[in-house]
Amino acid sequence: MPLRSATFDLDGTLVDSIPDLAAACHAMLAELGQPPRTDGDVHRFVGKGMAVLVERCLTWDAAPEASLLEAGIASFRRHYADINGRASTVYPGVVEGLEAFRALGLPLGVVTNKPAAFTSPLLERMGLAGYFEVVIAGDTLAFKKPRPEPLLHACALLATEPGLNLHVGDSLNDIESARAAGCPVICVPYGYNEGRPVDSADCDALVSDLVAAARWAAGA
Ligand SMILES: O=C(O)COP(=O)(O)O
């Protein structure tokens, strides 16, 4: 059966947001007088939403105290609101790929673990907002990827069945969420997978970029 819609992960799939996420982490840690992290650490820590990113930055021998974590989240929010989109870039092939998906007549959505307060501003600043009919952020629902709910909600809003919605992501969070929701899922290899290379065995296909993803969708 031909596909009826497609959804996309944001960080690591559409946009390389590590420079801004890392800058906000550096500013937060400095403000709280905590040991610094490298950009490489932040690259490994991104994936399960903002609170987990901050918690991982603050975890050395043990998890941070609740009050420190709370202060870290508040500080990160303030800094990232300022920085979000400044040094982030759209990956090569994304605009051409989204145009190709659109040419297939598929309505498109974003399903990200990024909080809503940062998702729409980033899509706007990157010039991508107009491609998407539906945006499900990390705090739109009570559950994030790898739970299936965000993708199921996107499918309902896109008026499609999960089995006919292709999800395109960069990580095991995307793959597990799609598998649990019953969506076909393909991955790009250039994003963030919490420090591991994404494995072609786990998804329906590993494609070099979104142009190749649209070619795969056309043949599905
Ligand atoms: O905010 C995160 O942790 C990751 O966001 P993503 O789901 O767009 O990769």
From TrEMBL:
Q: Which reaction does it catalyse?
A: 2-phosphoglycolate + H2O = glycolate + phosphate
The signal peptide annotation in the UniProt record is: none
- Enumerate the transmembrane spans: none
Give the active-site positions: 9
Top enzyme class, one word, equals hydrolase
Cofactor needs: Mg(2+)
Q: Does the keyword Transcription apply?
A: no
Q: In which pathway does it act?
A: Organic acid metabolism; glycolate biosynthesis; glycolate from 2-phosphoglycolate: step 1/1
Tell me which UniProt keywords the record has, alphabetically.
Carbohydrate metabolism, Hydrolase, Magnesium, Metal-binding
UniProt family annotation = Belongs to the HAD-like hydrolase superfamily. CbbY/CbbZ/Gph/YieH family.
Query: In UniProt terms, what function does this protein have?
Result: Specifically catalyzes the dephosphorylation of 2-phosphoglycolate. Is involved in the dissimilation of the intracellular 2-phosphoglycolate formed during the DNA repair of 3'-phosphoglycolate ends, a major class of DNA lesions induced by oxidative stress.
Q: What is the protein name given in its UniProt record? A: Phosphoglycolate phosphatase
Q: From which organism does this entry originate?
A: Azospira oryzae
